[in-house]
Specification:
- 2 copies of one chain form a homodimer.
- Chain A has 16 helices and 15 strands.
- Chain A has helices at 3-17, 29-36, 40-52, 93-102, 123-136, 141-144, 151-164, 178-190, 205-213, 231-240, 262-275, 332-342, 348-359, 363-388, 414-423, 454-472; strands at 56-59, 63-66, 87-89, 174-177, 196-201, 217-224, 228-229, 245-248, 279-282, 307-312, 323-327, 394-395, 403-407, 429-430, 443-447.
- In chain A, α2 packs across α3 (40-52) and α5 (123-136) crosses α13.
- At the A-B interface, α5, α6, α8, α9 and α12 of A face α5, α6, α8, α9 and α12 of B.
């Protein structure tokens, strides 16, 4: 842990313990610097971090004050455990595509977006690295750096895992067209059509689409907004059904934002290993933590090679470059072969370009800035939800990523909310997108990965008004007219 | 047709008709220029073209002479029609991967390679275009230029089809990670696991691998080295079986090099339409013609939207950039959705880079040079086969692409030839790679896409000696020890 992170942790502990109370003024930067023998910039960094986490706030010409942000946040959602057991066919494509299509235009406020703002990334520096990569590329690398991919880049990726505490070798890495391809290949490598696969409830719709495309059935296991998948329910599902695999997100899950504690990750890996069930781990948000250090992936606890870990640079460095990877453990050969037969390779100059970027340093500096920005935007989004959404609305408190999971009071139907918002050029990702059976109809996922401005604040206010109107004049269950909804069994 | 192409056609006709005989000296460049009223460079270009086609040859300080190359070529292979009817499961992956892996090192003479030499492509110019594309890229294009892909690039691709005589609109185009992804997506869009799909015999092993991965069965219909798939046998298969799709290459088929005449393409499209069977058309070699004009794709005859046409820049412009596309006809929506759920998009800077290259011109000039080079290398390869391979060896005479299909006399076993060649650092693609049931054991595919030199000539001589040795001391059928061979039913 860096010096400023230690200092921030210490102050955070004082706030949580009540030693520092809401409204208290913090010592000045110079005072702390002198008393602790640390540099002024270290204190500033610690204060920025605490501000990002919503614990303190600067007042102009007056210093920093404790806001103890937590007391000003909406209450957290409760765990949903209404998932029935057993495996079910998946048919979400129609609903998911119709919603994504409706939110794709630039004129739409991007609350439904799956991406953070592309302006948060070092695109000019990446472009220069790409130019150098393409210019200096060995022509023969177009032939022999096909899957598993550039040896240099695989070494760079493995080194980052090593530094974070997961033992990964360059030969474990298979470079892919983004994490999405990695996930699809891993799923195909360990399943046959008709198999059942455990997913979280709610889960990333991309997982459901992957299951649907491969003719797989879903077993939904409830996940909690704080700690992720419920291990007791998972154990039950493993005993009752015969899943071929389990697909989940351990760090800052999409859509919940949940973070599995290390102990849970270890227990998860052991539990699955006891049943011989492979784990497909989607870790694309792992680098976007607001806390002091990168949370470990479940892969770090994998003794059996049963964890197929997938990630990418798309959400943390290079959107649009489509560079991801899989660490498929004992399934490496199958995944590499599937990759070769489906898309052969990732563009050689893109691999060279990312490799050049990583070699020149600056990635970690960019990440610190990005995490800081996202944490600030989360504070703004949470506050806006509290301000504008109907009383009784709950929201998750993710410690990383850029999604807020919002649970409206029962009676709000987010599928019709989405349609009404769409007419006002506001994108919304309604809960049923994240469920194989159309659950979470009073929930939405909000993207706070975009620069906070009046337009976004206004959109939140509009959503709040629309939800309130639904509560004021509750309607009968709507006729089944939403695209794909009938397929959801709603 | 350009002026020099017209002139070359005229002279070629004179040679074929016997008006000009082997050994005859052609009129001097200046004479023709004067008598025909065309520029000296036009005559030179015509003579180069004829030289590339093996019809004439320059002698130093003496002018051009008719060599009527055809009489010096190996005899053509006969049509294979020993395919049994009915659909069969496909298990070629083990064999194909073991052979491809063994030939992947740079030290191996690349006769088994699927790629032409990367040195034949304008990589420095492409790198500059990529640099400009990345530098000027609108950051938001990383979000909204996902599948179907960049509107500019789709317009540029559609325009080339229009110029070549196929009516294609930008909205018909779905940008993909190379043609391989396009083909896999199209196949998945029109089939369900267990379905039967018509392929050529022999066929591109990538088609067989795609079938295997999706759990599809293959119906093999014989294809002829000159004209492509046998339409009579295709009609029988359509009537007897219930195929879900037909996958083939209309132009310069891999591995045969066959070119379907326009009339056959039209008949093919009509026949399939009569049965309501979609055609997946792999046209990655269409631009590599040696003749006067680009052969039409079957897509040009498609009235029903039943042709799913796939191509890319990988073989004709930008190896390693992994930029391809599908024109999926009436299946556009399904293909675009599958693409979105599997790999989301093609790297935005790569799309921008290719678009920049195409906008600046020079692609057609590059293609003319490339075709000329490949045609010359084919002449060299055919001559070497005639010189070094055992008497009775036959070879195809492709009018485009960079593959020669060679049929040794019965008694040569190319699977053991491949293993023996491998020990000598020579890559060989044996016939059984191209068949769902391990046929064509006395055939190989030779790649002539690399600069002709003593090393390649020496490799051909070695292969010839190895084949001759097999014929001299015929061995009993080898024990089944080749990887995957048992699966081939051999």
């Amino acid at each position: 842990m860096k010096r400023y992170e230690l200092l921030a942790e210490e102050i955070a502990t004082s706030i949580r313990s009540g030693m520092l109370d809401v409204g208290d003024r913090l010592p000045s930067v110079r005072q702390i610097s002198t008393s602790r023998g640390v540099s002024v910039s270290t204190v500033f960094e610690a204060y920025y971090l605490l501000e990002a986490r919503g614990l303190i706030r600067a007042r102009e010409r007056s210093g920093y004050y404790v806001t103890a942000g937590n007391t000003r946040l909406p209450p957290e959602p409760v765990i949903h455990s209404n998932c029935s057991t057993g495996a079910h066919p998946v048919r979400v494509n129609d609903l998911v595509f119709s919603i994504l299509e409706s939110a794709r235009s630039r004129d739409v406020v991007p609350l439904a977006s799956a991406f953070p703002s592309p302006l948060l990334f070092p695109l000019p520096r990446l472009a220069r690295s790409l130019a150098r990569g393409a210019e200096t590329m060995d022509p023969w690398s177009t032939v022999d750096a096909i899957t598993p991919g550039s040896a240099t880049l695989r070494r760079q990726i493995a080194t980052r895992y090593l530094a974070d505490g997961a033992l990964v070798q360059p030969d474990d890495v298979v470079i892919t067209n983004g994490a999405l391809e990695a996930l699809n290949l891993c799923l195909q490598a360990v399943t046959q059509p008709g198999d059942a696969v455990i997913v979280e409830s709610p889960t990333f719709y991309g997982a459901l689409q992957a299951l649907e495309n491969l003719g797989l059935r879903a077993i939904e296991v409830p996940s909690c907004p704080r700690d992720g998948i419920c291990l007791d329910r998972l154990a039950q599902a493993l005993a009752a059904d015969k899943p071929a695999a389990c697909w989940l997100m351990t760090n800052f899950q999409n859509p919940l934002g949940s973070l599995m504690p290390d102990a849970n990750k270890r227990a998860l890996v052991d539990l699955l290993a006891a049943h011989g069930v492979p784990l497909i781990e989607d870790d694309v948000y792992g680098e976007l933590y607001y806390g002091p250090r990168r949370p470990l992936p479940a892969k770090a606890f994998d003794q059996e090679g049963l964890v197929l870990h997938c990630s990418s640079f798309s959400k943390c460095l290079a959107p649009g470059y489509r560079l991801g990877w899989a660490l498929p453990g004992r399934f490496r050969e199958q995944v590499a072969r599937l990759k070769l037969t489906r898309t052969l390779a990732v563009a050689a100059p893109v691999q060279e370009g990312l490799s050049d970027y990583l070699a020149r340093g600056g990635y970690d500096r960019h990440l610190r800035q990005l995490r800081h920005t996202l944490a600030l935007q989360q504070t703004a989004m949470s506050a806006a939800v509290l301000r504008h959404f109907p009383a009784g609305t709950r929201a998750s408190r993710p410690e990383g990523g850029y999604f807020l999971w919002v649970e409206f009071p029962a009676g709000v139907d987010t599928l019709s909310l989405q349609r009404e918002a769409c007419l006002r050029n506001i994108g919304v990702a309604p809960g049923p997108m994240f469920s194989a059976r159309g659950e979470f109809r009073n929930c939405i996922r909000l993207n706070f990965g975009h620069h906070w401005d009046a337009k976004i604040e206004g959109a939140i206010a509009t959503l709040g008004a629309l939800a309130a109107a639904q509560l004021d004049s509750p309607r009968p269950a709507p006729a089944i007219e939403e695209p794909g909804l009938s397929a959801l069994g709603a």
